[in-house]
Design brief:
mainly alpha, MetI-like fold, 3 domains, three-stranded antiparallel β-sheet, extended
């Protein structure tokens, strides 16, 4: 005790106070452990998801190939030397390249005689080998009349067998390959005519009905063209709207209504923007269906609110003293904004733009509504050509029954995740590198 009352130290050392303090500390520890458990559970679930995708998708980056000795004398297409352009294409198209593959296989397995076994034997090699041989012929017309060895892609079932997805130790009735086909594969392996190599075609081919020939290049080009249109429309309009609302617009009920609607549009489901794009761009403006220009316009509508909100936040973060100093030196309101405020706010604006573009890259629903779900084989050459995008390509492959397309789906997901991580990483780097702290 003291003359002025109880000693504060004695009051905190009282048993009741100590018990309350211990209970509070225990409660804080439990809360911290719960938070750590939640983060650990989320991290574990993410690792399991990524491991599952990677285990299913690594095979998409590998391809089984078979080496065949192709006798081009059996193509019966005549001399191609001296031909160019359409004449060369027409002459090369006369060749029966399927017969070249079939004859090369029968030379290796002369005991195959029945038509059914011949079809199975020809199934060892992908049907896309015909287009590969035709392209080789166009690249080097001197191959006519010669015999050359080529590594050609194996059929999808052979590819799955070599990657371990089809096991030979199960009963013949329970697997996709019979004992006869497995014996042919063993013979190819013993003669070093079969190998598994990097699948460069996965990054250079367009879509295909044959899973071993399908690639993501067409979808990547379509995604690039679509995002280019989105950026060209959403970025300038979003920045201009953010500047006007934050710096020049008077604060009244109309601007309040606009702000509320912008915030609401940022939370609208993406499929609603797809319906808007279908009604306006396709049915009213009659723009070409499945074209990157339509997809870009639709995604621009979806991305615009995000860019406006991020732009307003970045402009608002610039200290008022910057504006006051510029005005004190005689700068006009437009000069203050263009020369001082906007350059300082640009890192935050670009960060929000990249995040909005990353969201647009992963969208599927609005693009399905405008017809970008079609089967597109050719690589788009312009903004009005029929195209698809990577998320829609994943959706199409996921709906295919072949086991080989499961690898393609997971491999394309890995590529899409890599792009998303790169874009978000760029946004974080730009914020850390260029953002100024006041």
């Amino acid at each position: 005790m003291t003359e002025d009352g109880p000693d504060p130290r004695e009051s905190w050392q009282a048993p009741e106070r100590q018990r309350r303090l211990r209970r509070r500390h225990a409660s804080e520890r439990r809360f911290r452990y719960c938070g750590m458990a939640a983060i650990g559970s989320a991290g574990l679930a993410l690792l399991v998801l990524l491991a599952s995708i990677a285990s299913n998708g690594y095979g998409a980056f590998l391809q089984t190939q078979i080496r065949l000795d192709i006798d081009f004398a059996e193509a019966d297409i005549g001399d191609l030397r001296g031909l160019h352009g359409r004449k060369l294409d027409a002459a090369a198209a006369r060749g029966d390249y399927g017969a070249l593959v079939r004859n090369a296989l029968r030379e290796m397995f002369p005991d195959v005689s029945s038509r059914r076994e011949v079809r199975k034997l020809q199934g060892l090699v992908s049907s896309g080998a015909r287009s590969i041989l035709r392209r080789k012929m166009l690249e080097d017309p001197t191959l006519v009349g010669q015999t050359e060895s080529f590594w050609l892609p194996a059929g999808d079932e052979i590819d799955m067998y070599e990657k371990g997805h089809i096991r030979r130790d199960v009963p013949e009735s329970d697997r996709r390959l019979d004992d006869r086909e497995i014996s042919w594969i063993d013979a190819l392996e013993n003669s070093d005519r079969i190998r598994t190599t990097f699948n460069s075609g996965f990054f250079t081919h367009g879509d295909s009905r044959e899973p071993e020939m399908a690639g993501i290049w067409g979808a990547l080009v379509g995604s690039f063209l679509t995002l280019l249109v989105t950026l060209a429309i959403a970025f300038p309009l979003g920045v201009a709207a953010a500047v006007y609302l934050e710096e020049f617009a008077r604060k009244n009920r109309w601007t309040d209504l606009i702000e509320v609607n912008i915030n609401n549009l940022a939370a609208v489901p993406s499929i609603v923007f797809g319906l808007l794009g279908l009604a306006v761009f396709l049915n009213f403006l009659l723009l070409p269906r499945s074209a990157p220009v339509v997809g870009g316009l639709t995604l621009a509508l979806m991305t615009l609110p995000t860019i406006i909100i991020a732009g307003r936040s970045a402009i608002k973060a610039v200290p008022p003293s910057i504006r006051e100093a510029a005005r004190a030196l005689g700068a006009s309101p437009l000069q203050v904004m263009a020369h001082h405020v906007l350059p300082l706010a640009m890192p935050g604006i670009l960060t929000g733009t990249i995040i909005g573009m990353a969201r647009a890259l992963g969208e599927t629903a609005p693009l399905l509504m405008i017809g970008m779900v079609a089967f597109i084989v050719d690589i788009p050459q312009g903004f009005t050509d029929a195209a698809t995008v990577l998320p829609v390509q994943i959706y199409l492959w996921a709906d295919s029954p072949e086991r080989a397309f499961v690898e393609k789906v997971s491999g394309a997901i890995l590529v899409l995740l890599a792009f998303l991580v790169a874009m978000n990483g760029t946004a974080i780097w730009m914020r850390q590198r260029f953002e100024k702290r006041w």
